[in-house]
Fold this sequence. Notes:
Layout: H1 20-27, E1 33-34, H2 47-54, H3 67-77, E2 84-87, H4 90-101, E3 107-112, H5 117-124, E4 128-133, H6 141-147, E5 152-158, H7 170-177, E6 185-189, H8 204-209, E7 214-219, E8 232-236, H9 238-247, H10 255-266, H11 268-291, E9 295-297, E10 303-307, H12 313-321, E11 324-325, E12 327-329, E13 334-341, H13 345-361
Parallel strand pairs: 1-11, 3-4, 3-5, 5-6, 6-7
Antiparallel strand pairs: 2-8, 7-8, 9-10, 10-13, 12-13
Bound molecules: pyridoxal-5'-phosphate (PLP).
The site of pyridoxal-5'-phosphate (PLP) has 14 residues, from helix 4.
Amino acid sequence: MVSARRSLKNLKAYKPGKPVEELKRELDLKEVYKLASNEIPFVPAYIFKAVLSQIPQINRYPEASSHYVRQKLARTLKVKPDRLVFGNGSDELIVMTLRAFVEERDEVIIGTPTFLIYEIQSQVAGARIKKVPLRDYRYDLETIARAITKKTKMIFIANPDNPHGTYVTHEEVVKFLNKVPKNVLVFFDEAYFEFVMNKDYPRTLALLKTRKNIIMSRTFSKAYGLAGVRIGYAVCDPEVAQCLNNVREPFNIDRFAQACASAALDNYRFVEKVKNHIVKEKRYLYRELAKLNLEYIESVTNFILINFKKDTARLNEYLLRKGIIVRPLAEWGLPEFFRVTVGLHKENEAFIRHLKGFLKNK
Ligand SMILES: *Cc1c(COP(=O)(O)O)cnc(C)c1O
């Protein structure tokens, strides 16, 4: 066979959460609850019209500039339209950033454990990866700043982090940025930004105004409920945006994703509803987990990391048989932890019921 690039040699490919249809097929289950991929459990009602509106033009390429979403988002965020870059999910913005800025053997600093895509894509790019452990389940910005060398090109910060559900504060970020040289790019992944209600969460848009070495990404996949159409965005300096656009596939955002995101921005009330649901259900889950004497990490997002204190493989197997998909974290190097996404109340209840069942029977 033709040899693939050297950087792919030891690559561990990303394994997504188990799809509902697959588990139904495998175990012949009627009902399956997926609490594994941090999706929200609602479909926004306004989306049907947005999707239908595009069908008569399905034979035509979408607008390469994502014009309408760009204008609306620029107004919503109060930034100039040329500071925005759209990606096929914010995952693609990670890939585009590496492609535009990181040469082979450049050093990339990543927290550990954290969102797996940073490492996988940095490895594909042929970068040298330096991992800095989280401390008390939070990104350790002081140690990351000290880890910067002359070879460092880029730093990934998931804020809030996945799988921990924790965040770093505005003050911590400002202190950190003051120690980062101007030729090092900091990528703030704010995929769960909309869920955060804490006042000391970073005002990244303000920080971007005076710094050219920051890229901030957000997504329509989580709070907006659009994971199925794939659209995320980055905000950065216009020159940085130009670099990202230079490596972007021209039609990376299809017309359905553009129309859905555009409608989503007109219907922010939906996100408010989602947020209230998550807050209420997190309270329920915390209470029930405490009753079961299970340790969890308090989360500002729509998922909860649970410290099971023993290997979660058997628990996971048990829950799958009951039609509940959670996320075991052995791949993150956390075999005694699992992550559960906040679902509908009946889904959360079923999860707790079966968790109880497992603990009683073991
Ligand atoms: C879900 C998630 C994303 C978003 O992925 P999309 O490609 O936008 O669907 C990005 N970063 C983190 C940390 C995530 O958990």
